[in-house]
Design brief:
By secondary structure, this protein is mainly beta. The protein has strands at 27-33, 36-41, 46-51, 56-61, 71-80, 98-106, 111-118, 123-124, 128-131, 136-138, 144-146, 149-152, 155-156, 160-165, 170-175, 187-192, 198-203.
Length: 208
Amino acid sequence: MDPPDLIPSERFRPPLGGEGGWEPNKWRIFGCRHGHVLLYNRKQKEIVLWNPPTGDHRHVAVPPEYDREERMIWNGAVLCTAAGDRSHVHGSFSSCPIKAALVSVASNHAQVSACIYSTETGEWSDLVSTAVPFVVYSFCHPGTLVGNSLYWIPTGLGYAIVEFDMDRHRLAVIEWPLGAKVSANGCSRIVLAEDGGLGLAILSRHSL
């Protein structure tokens, strides 16, 4: 293939800057959606928004609330707010209104927080927090986008679903469905249901 159909392989190298390349203890990949990737540099306390096809990227320092040890960033998500427009073509930041969300756990393991960065404003939103009725350690799995909300399953001494409503800028804890048990060697994932709503898939041994 020839340009513009051929994309140079160099564009798919993460834009890590002059810091010696990829180090698992320093970098985390929080997810990809709508043609963009969200990276997190734990040591520099910054996120990197990256569009591999165009090579466009942006380094953004995380909010000052994360400079202290009171909160630990565990996961995040990236999305294009124009994705609902079927005529929209995902591309660089100049043509795509991108949002990046971060979710964190407080040092007391009893509270979770979230915030949003917008490429349109170049600013972070205020931090929103909510209490969780059990000890929470982390958010290990990628968030699931359903409508205008992001959902995560926290890892801890209990089960629940954390919802981040990006329109209302509200964080809430959804009770785990009654009877939905996860065995010691099983796992659970939030999924987009066939009707476009929120779904939950649980793998228990050999049953789904």
